[in-house]
Amino acid sequence: MKSNICKVLGENIKKYRKSKNLTQNVLAEIIGLEVKSLSLIETGKGFVSAKTLEKLVSVLNVSASDLFNCSDVEDNSKLYEEILANLDIIKNNTDKLKTLNFMLKSLI
To answer: Helix, strand, or coil here: 33?
Structure first.
C-alpha cells in the first residue's frame, strides 16, 4: 500500500460529497472554503486543516476514519506490517509521534 494520504482523503471526500448529491460549489460554501481549495483537496493536491476536517465529517455525516480509509488494502497483516515499518522510521521524531498518537486516539 503506497497510497498518498492527500489523494486518499480527496477521493473519499469526493465520493461522500457525490453520495450526498452535493456539488463542489455547495459543499465549499457550507464548510467555508473557496471552490478552488476544495478542488485541490479532492484531487490530492491540497490538504485540509483540522477545522475543515471537522466540518467535512459533520456535513458529510461520516467519521474521520471513513475519510482516510484506503480501499486498496486487502490484507490486515500486510497493513499492520507497513504501519510498524513506518513507526520504526519515525520512532525518534517526537513531534511526528505526538501527531500520530493524537490521530490514533481520535480514530479509536
So the answer is: coil
Distance in angstroms (rounded) separating the CA atoms of residues 6 and 79: 18
For the full predicted model, state whether its pTM sits above 0.90.
no
Please give the chain's pLDDT, 108 residues, in tens: 445 899 999 999 999 999 999 999 999 999 999 999 999 999 999 999 999 999 999 999 999 999 998 776 566 777 788 888 889 999 999 999 999 888 888 777
CA atoms of 76 and 78, how far apart (whole Å): 5
Q: Which three three-digit cell numbers place residue 70?
A: 484506503
Burial of 55 (0-12, 13-18, 19+ CB in 10 A): middle
| Torsion-angle region of 45 (φ positive above 0: left; ψ -120 to 50: alpha; else: beta) | alpha
